[in-house]
Amino acid sequence: MKKIIVATQNKGKVKEIKEILADLDIEVQTMGEAGIEIDIEENGTTFEENAIIKAEAISKLTDAMVIADDSGLEIDCLNKEPGVYSARYLGKDTPYEVKNQMILDRLKDVPKEERTARFVCSMALAEAGKETVTTYGTIEGYIGYQSEGTNGFGYDPIFFVDELGTSTANISAEEKNKISHRARALNALADIIKERLNG
Ligand code: ITT
User: Fold this and answer.
1) Tell me, what CATH number does 172's domain have?
2) Would you say the C-alpha torsion 104, 146, 93, 123 has a positive or negative sign?
3) pTM over 0.90
4) Is there an atom of ligand 1 within 6 Å of 62 CB?
5) Cβ–ligand 1 contact at 87 (below 6 Å)
6) Each residue of 79-117: pLDDT tens digit?
7) Domain region containing 135
8) Catalytic status, residue 93
9) Is the CB of 10 under 6 A from ligand 1?
10) Which ligand 1 atom sits closest to the C-alpha of 156?
């Protein structure tokens, strides 16, 4: 079976990407499972640039297809912060319970209509000898007034979606994988991956 390597250190992303690609006839490996250990400097200024940097850095080390996800949370009333700095925002090693509470505190007097936010994901597919391809996905929502739910990862407990009536941490993995920014970007890439598997 052909394999595809996911160029991420984030366990939450790996779990979701493996679930979303489960229907494809391909083995999805983490960098660890592929025996690749490398620190990549994400010095791009956009999600797309960072996704390409990560995918191409790993692709140089393997003949397999490589996908990388660069994603984050844009909060409109904070000038789209934390944006591309989502993982580093308020300190890379600060627990998300603390980060999420700090965001709730910052927004405590902001009315619902000004709490709009979105998760954004750029996904890059790199393969030796082929041009790198990128796709993009978003999900619109707002920052709630309190954390809700324990599923998902990162900012999920404070990211609420009107149609759900709750946060993306308070729904099942299956539900999140139908609507998330990551699922949208990855589903758009899945057709290209399938073509390459058959080609
Ligand atoms: P890699 O670079 O190794 O993939 P990372 O966590 O550093 O891992 P990013 O630079 O793309 O990845 O930062 C993405 C951050 O955005 C992530 O750490 C979360 O804080 C947040 N994020 C992205 N998608 C999310 C989701 O589905 N739910 C909650 N938070 C998310």
Assistant:
1) 3.90.950.10
2) negative
3) yes
4) no
5) yes
6) 999 999 999 999 999 999 999 999 999 999 999 999 999
7) 2-198
8) no
9) yes
10) 29
